[in-house]
Amino acid sequence: MIHLDSRSLSRRPCTRRGILATVSAIYDPLGFLAPAILPAKRILQNLCKLQLDWDTKVPPEYESSWNKWLQEVPYLSNFAIERCLRPAELRQSSNMQLHHFSDASDNGYGTVSYIRSESSSGTVHVSLLMAKARVAPLKKITIPRMELTAATSMVKINSVLQRELQLPIASVYYWTDSETVLKYICNSTARFQTFVQNRVALIKDGSQTSQWRHIETKANPADACSRGVTAKTLVDNKSWTTGPEFLYQSEEDWPNTTANYVTPDLSDDPEVKKKVKVNSVMTDESIKTMERLVTYFSSWYKLCRAVSWIIKIKNLLIQRVRRKNNDNSSKKNVRHEEVKGQCQTKTDITSPLTITDIREAEKAIIGYEQKKWFPEEWKLLARQQHHDQTQKVNEVIVKKSSPLYKLNPYMLDRLLRVGGRIAKATLPEETKFPIILPRKSFITDLIMHNAHEITGHGGRNFMLAHLYEKYWIIGANSLARRVIHKCVICRKQRARVCEQQMADLPQDRVTAENPPFTCVGVDYFGPFLVKRGRSVVKRYGVLFTCLTTRAIHLEKADALDTDNCINAIRRCVARRGQVRELRSDNGTNFVGSERELREEIKKWNKAKFTAEMLQRNVDWKFNPPAGSHFGGVWERQIRTVRKIMSALVKQQVLTDDSLSTLFCEIEAIVNNRPITAVQGSAGDLEPLTPSMLLLMKSSGSLPPTVSDRPDQYAKKRWKQIQYLADMFWRRWSRVCDSTSRETKME
User: Fold this and answer.
1) Which of 27, 123, 220, 330 has the most crowded CB, counting CB atoms within 10 A?
2) What is the C-alpha end-to-end distance of the chain, expressed in Å?
3) Average pLDDT, the chain
């Protein structure tokens, strides 16, 4: 009899905690009440799926189902089962069997086990041993997989029962209503998915195929464990405790359909792994073994190390074979000294590689490549070397169509080398007669990359000079360019700097209808040392450039203060006309290298500049502090002026008057430069210059006079300045004359 206190069970609250406590309070270790408890476990599983708190009241639909189950719990008090497995009349039974039943559904899966005792007179008694019911997992799986899981549980329970019963069990039977499970168990050829494969393997380890039987679903007592029943239905079902009716019959009358699944058809079963057809191609491994070894490595040094170990092991095996043959020979005394000498020089596989091993590997690899790429030449020169015992053969025996014909090749140490006429030079032998390498060989690429790395990713000539010390590669120039081009490190280091696309030019640079020097850029340059009496003082140059015509105007400033700058601007306006817009640097981004220029311009009184310029209707605009490229239009002109002054003045020290005159000469020279393209045809128009736009004629400067070299040291300063200007015009004449000669030749 089962004793249950239904009042204590119904006192708990209708929450997850209360339902779990109620289900856990039913102590049923052997699972006699498993079919009736399964519906309560289903309710608890659904509440877990909703992720409710432990003390939160369950939803109304689950509350009604729970209350209905609680109302039927008192019926379980009427559940009774006979605990005697063998009655007194069957104590001497001759046949005891275990029968396990399993089933699965969407709600869950379960098993039930019975013991069948049969006396010699034919009396049969069946008792319930154990049952188990499990809810279906939250992760949906197929019914065949759940049936297979239930069958696995039967095998596990059988091992437990046989260990604990301590009864002489004659035979064991496993019953299932799943035909798919029986097909899996009877199969011996198909390969299943991992889930099925693991469980079928466990079943076959714990049972035999002949023990498995098929039963109809209606006659399967485990159906109640998989679907769940009410407490009243379980108590009224007498077959639950006594077993199915066919167990009381003789074995010949039992259901037996296992023979239909001995050769199952599983071609359409999704649990069977699909067969993959693979097409194989037979290749000659003896030919491609060396190719696979060579192309496996991406480093010349690693390849040489690998081949060195292979050669070392080969020599060791050869020594062992020779030693074994010598031991088996009949003339042991005669061979004793030879064997002793071989043992003394035997190869030690545990010793590290040496330089000699690496060189032998290099010779083996290069010899293989030469045989592959130059087979005819290699055979001819090898035969010639065999007939001629000298090291070098001067006679060229290769065909004229051969790529090696011009190299005068010869063979030394079974390697093709370049001949030549420098045999008596005091150079290393490998430099005088380098090894020939083909152009398209993978080995050649490895050697080129190795040389490129050894030379520190240097240039092409550096790499080729290093290679020619030992190798002669056909078409090495193009190969070197390709290696450098593909080198990732070189591409990073030698990549071109990104060039930003320049913005549109400001309006004052492209407005052509205004007079010259309407929009002006100004900048300082210098200082220059000039004589004043017996002292030497500093003077500065002020450059004004027209932003439209690119003409320049030079003024001399005695200092870098605000007053001198304003005076220079006033002199420019007085001679060039009214300036409407004036642009300059902000005082911190001058390109000039003189420290004084930067520091003094920082001291400028910009407020005074603004007030003075407003009186003269001049709009002064300063460039941003970090925008040095804003002043490129006048920085380029300062460079031109400096270039001319450095070429003419050199180390001479001028006076104030001479410096002013030189500025005027340089101004005229720069304003006569062409600002349009100079054509090479005699019929083309004269190139346009800024001087034409200012003076409406080609040149406003004085023509060069006849001056001599001593005039640069004359006491009259005007002759000195004239000589400096003449130097420029002589240079210009030479360039102009050469251009004219080229024009006449056309």
Assistant:
1) 220
2) 129
3) 80
